Amino acid sequence: MRTLIYVPVIHSSADLGSLAKEVTRRGMADFGPDFWAGHEKTILGFWDAVIKYFDSVEVSGFKLYQDGMIAEGEVAQKIVEEGVKSGSRNYELVWALLKKGAVLVKTEDFSLVKEERDRLLKITQAKTLSAKLLGFVMYKLSKNRLLNKRDEFIAKRIGETLNDGETGIIFVGAYHNIKKRLPPDIRIVEIKEAVKVREYQELLPFYQKRKERFAQLASYLAAEIKHE
Fold first, then answer.
1. Nearest alpha carbon to residue 228 among 43, 1, 6
2. Which residues span the domain enclosing 22?
3. Is 208 part of a structural domain of the chain?
């Protein structure tokens, strides 16, 4: 039996690299600075809860999988270090787990990650409205195909590298769906429900109409995680 601790994440602006400034600008413009500040506080609360959970987990020898991680060894360590410098709570936790003896594993295919990032950059860097709309349409047309290919690759990597009797940890965006693609002998421990993390993100544009549910989900994201 193999075990995978599954962490469906919601990314902060610091996780988005070159996309961060545009995402923050659009968020403040679309929702207002007060709401956006509250949203960012919710994300920080989510990461506080996840970090506290792993504080009491002995992770030495655990395999560590991270969405977007297209390398391992020294290159992977450089990527993590840069993420920490940018203020990413996700990468701060990855770094802490590595110091406790976890082993970072190449998780994704470089070409697929690059294709998705390039399409997003075309939207954020577009100089005209027509170019931005074209970039958005092209991204929407390819989004599901790319996500499915990435999920298939991630699940295959876990199946190939997580050995019998071992435990792995995966940090992956909540819109990914790798659980159904994993080998059946992998026991999944989902420390936050991916369906609720996704629902929170989907309700963002409609929070004024679903304020009570949105508040419930925000509270859930930041709630303490109980150990099994």
1. 6
2. 2-222
3. yes
| pLDDT, tens digit, 9 for 90 and up, residues 114-145 | 877 766 665 566 566 555 554 544 555 557 78
For residue 212, give both structure tokens: 């009570």
Q: Give the pTM.
A: 0.84
Side-by-side strand order, sheet with 2-9: 103-104, 63-66, 167-173, 2-9, 186-190
228 in any annotated domain: no
Residue 210: C-alpha distances to residues 6, 168, 203, 216 (Å): 28, 36, 7, 10
Q: Give domain status of residue 227, yes or no.
A: no
Number of separate domains in the chain: 1
What count of Cα atoms within 13 Å lies in the side-chain half-sphere of residue 105?
23
Give the tokens for residue 32.
């207002």
Token duo for residue 37 = 């500040």
Q: List C-alpha distances in Å: 91 to 26, 62, 84, 133, 216.
A: 24, 16, 5, 32, 27
**Cα(13)–Cα(25) distance, integer angstroms:** 10
| Residue 34 clears pLDDT 80, i.e. is over it | no
Give the model confidence (pLDDT) of 159-189 as tens digits. 999 999 999 999 998 888 899 999 999 999 9
SS3 state of residue 6: strand
Mean pLDDT computed over 135-159: 77
**Residue 93 resides in a domain:** yes
> Which of 67, 56, 138, 126 is closest to 97 using CA atoms?
56
The span from the CA of 44 to the CA of 142, in Å, is: 30
Backbone angles phi, psi at 190, to 5 degrees: -90, 110
